[in-house]
């Protein structure tokens, strides 16, 4: 099973990534709107994408990493100075965003709802 980490907010994400070591394994990061008390994200697109991502995640290398990052509430995300938007490593424009960390592969918005694209991102091998 994929090694999973759940983080909330830019500070926790940033601190985690400073010390995180992938040991050469693939790292996938999903940026999503923060969940409310019901367990649902305020972001409708994130809600639609999550079941697809969760299903396709089962096909990923069991030794890979999956980092689920809640970016904050709607006002935090909509702020043009949101740190997730400004960080050169994340450069977020859209939620949800699913990316292969330190690689060019990324899916944004409704592309995260497409099983074939999510599957390719999770199973892509740089040696292929």
TrEMBL record:
GO terms for molecular function: DNA binding; protein-disulfide reductase [NAD(P)H] activity; zinc ion binding. Residues 31-109 form the PARP-type domain. Transmembrane segments: none annotated. PROSITE patterns: ZF_PARP_2 (PS50064). Pfam families: TXD17-like_Trx. Keywords: Cytoplasm, Disulfide bond, Metal-binding, Redox-active center, Zinc. It comes from the Eukaryota. It is found in: Cytoplasm. Belongs to the thioredoxin family. The keyword Nucleotide-binding does not apply. GO terms for cellular component: cytosol. This is Thioredoxin domain-containing protein 17.
């Amino acid at each position: 099973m994929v090694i999973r980490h759940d983080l909330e907010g830019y500070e926790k994400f940033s601190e985690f990534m400073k010390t995180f070591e992938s040991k050469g394994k693939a790292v996938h990061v999903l940026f999503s709107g923060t969940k409310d008390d019901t367990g649902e994200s305020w972001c409708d697109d994130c809600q639609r994408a999550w079941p697809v991502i969760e299903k396709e995640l089962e096909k990923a290398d069991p030794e890979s990493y999956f980092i689920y990052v809640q970016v904050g509430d709607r006002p935090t995300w909509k702020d043009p100075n949101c740190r997730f938007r400004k960080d050169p490593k994340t450069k977020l424009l859209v939620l949800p965003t699913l990316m292969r960390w330190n690689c060019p592969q990324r899916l944004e918005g409704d592309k995260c709802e497409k099983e074939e694209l999510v599957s390719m991102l999770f199973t892509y091998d740089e040696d292929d």
